[in-house]
Amino acid sequence: MSDLSYLYQEILLEHNSKPRNFRVLDGHTVSVEGYNPLCGDQYTLYLTMQEDTIDDISFQGAGCAISKASTSMLTERVKGKTKQEAVDVFNEFHSMITKPGSDVDYDLLEDLETLSGISEYPTRIKCAILSWHALREALDGASESVSTE
Amino acid sequence: MSTGFNVLETRKDFPILSQTINGKPLVYLDNAATSQKPQRVIDSLSNYYQTINSNVHRGVHTLSQLATDDYESARSKVKSFIHADVDQEIIFTRGTTEAINLVAHSYGEHNIGSGDEVIISAMEHHSNIVPWQLLCQRNNATLRVIPINDDGELEIGAFDRLLTDRTKLVAVVHQSNALGTVNPIKSLVSMAHDKGVPVLVDAAQSVPHMSVNVQDIGCDFLAFSGHKLYGPTGIGVLYGKAGILEDMSPYQSGGEMIKSVTFEKTIFNVLPHKFEAGTPDIAGAIGLGSAIDYVKEIGIDVINSYEKELLDYGTAMLKNIDGLRIIGNASDKGAILSFTLGEIHPHDIGTILDSEGIAIRTGHHCAQPVMDRYGIPATARASLAFYNTKEEIDTLVQGIDKVMEVFS
């Protein structure tokens, strides 16, 4: 197991204590809930889609530091991106977290790379990936609750 | 120790405790989830498979007789451990959950109908909620819930008001897994019996830690699991009063539970076999019997008083920590310390403690209504056993300091 400080990096703790885009988005066109029944982590993503582009995105909810920071960073990373660009980021992030050692385009992930240490904590992978699955559902047009369980 | 109990010697009986986790000595504080097993229980399993493995109640050959003897002797050990009247009142199940489901089906289906009510409490484990919820849905009955106060104690007055002519069963936990609360089970049973209502006791958390006497309590059913009683997983017990069990229909059907079968008709076997369809967990039952022998040698009252000392010490230590809130402060409490720590999520607490070799449970502990009652999503829970030490509690406190350091 890697060093704890590699998991709880400063940027993660900072996003946890001061989450970005942490509000209900007025005039959102899509909202999707991500819920992990195992630990109770629960977030709602709000998206304002402008045709194929995520014009704005925000979230609300509660959970552990990893899930909250991951969601906060998600909103920063995909805001203003097209659906396809967001899906590309999702795929890279998913690979980084769930397939350690795989070939990942870290340039595309930007700050999200700092979450790579989570891949060494199998019990916490679901925390990191929860809102990303919700995003995927939102982009696919679903609006139901998604679960990582 | 004032009890004369030597914890360091006792720890040597548990091989798992001497290992390191993440480079640190294991501090196992997740005993409410499952307990560790002494060497003698582990040996009893391999000994069974190495020397007498065969099916029970079937063969005329020697091994079958030896296996049957040991399996039935385990039943007798359970009977005397919980002070049941006769062996026939001890049904082996997979665990507490299956025992409760057995009652919900075999008793519930025939005795709880439209307009009837089942009373549970607000501190139940999901396994003592969901079977009753589903039964009520199937039979158009209503589930009633005894509320708890801020300290995590049952509101007895509310229970009294909930008991009516419509009440057909009370299913209540002896010791809460999430809060540690020990309920005044004998008086709850007495109140229910005054209204002619039978009571099932979920004793999963109490039987491993305190003397439980079903005849003194007076309950009609009592369920517990072997794996929390320092025995193997996959084996548990339903105690039921013989007269009630006699009248109940089988739960599962097949071999073992029959006396005779034709295509026209099946005659069921006698108690307890009527409720033990199929080949049972023979090794598990024998292992449970061995665990009971072990507990009896130490003394369940010795275990109880030592754990009480640990709880008092742990409570005092945790109360010194700024921002730490203990969830569950009942005046009668088992050795369970459920807590929250400021805004830090229990899962983060659990991961950081794990890096220090400390195993605790984090989450809702299969008791979501309890979490809702306190308006929290989860707690961190240290649950103690007689092989834990005050030094391990000190290690926990240092671990919590580290958690706060990471999140400072």
Keyword list:
heterodimer, A: 149 residues, alpha+beta, Sufe protein. Chain: A, 6 helices, 41% helix, B: 408 residues, alpha/beta, globular
Describe this structure in words.
- Chain A is an alpha+beta fold and 149 residues long.
- Chain A has one domain (4-142): Sufe protein. Chain: A.
- Chain A is 41% helix and 19% strand.
- With 408 residues, chain B is α/β, with parallel strands linked by helices.
- Chain B has 2 domains: 7-30 and 300-406, Aspartate Aminotransferase, domain 1; 42-297, Type I PLP-dependent aspartate aminotransferase-like (Major domain) (Aspartate Aminotransferase, domain 2, 3-Layer(aba) Sandwich), CATH 3.40.640.10.
- In chain B, α4 (96-111) packs parallel to α5 and α12 packs across α14 (390-406).
- Chain B is globular.
- The interface between A and B is medium-sized, with 20 and 18 residues.
Tell me the major beta sheet of chain B.
7 strands, mixed
- Give the number of DSSP strands of chain A: 4
Unreliable residue stretches of chain B: none
Largest sheet of chain A: 4 strands, mixed
Looking at CATH, which topology of the largest domain in chain B would you report? Aspartate Aminotransferase, domain 2
CATH class identity of chain A: Alpha Beta
Q: What fold name stands as the CATH topology of chain A? A: Sufe protein. Chain: A
Assembly annotation = heterodimer
Please state how the strands of the largest beta sheet of chain A are arranged side by side: 3-2-1-4
The strands making up the biggest β-sheet of chain B line up spatially as 4-10-9-8-7-5-6
Helix content of chain A: 40-55%
Structure at a glance:
The complex is a heterodimer of chains A (149) and B (408). Chain A is an alpha+beta fold.
Please give the structural blueprint.
The complex is a heterodimer of chains A (about 150) and B (about 400).
Chain A: H1 4-7, H2 10-17, E1 30-36, E2 41-50, E3 53-62, H3 65-78, H4 83-98, H5 106-109, H6 125-139, E4 146-147
Parallel strand pairs in A: 1-4
Antiparallel strand pairs in A: 1-2, 2-3
Helix pairs in contact in A: 2-3, 3-6, 4-6
Chain B: H1 7-11, E1 20-21, E2 24-25, E3 27-28, H2 39-52, H3 62-81, E4 90-93, H4 96-111, E5 117-121, H5 130-139, E6 142-146, H6 156-162, E7 167-173, H7 185-194, E8 199-202, H8 214-217, E9 221-225, E10 236-240, H9 242-247, E11 258-261, E12 266-268, H10 282-298, H11 300-319, E13 324-327, E14 336-341, H12 346-355, E15 358-359, E16 361-363, H13 368-374, E17 379-383, H14 390-406
Parallel strand pairs in B: 3-15, 5-6, 5-7, 7-8, 8-9
Antiparallel strand pairs in B: 1-2, 4-10, 9-10, 11-12, 13-14, 14-17, 16-17
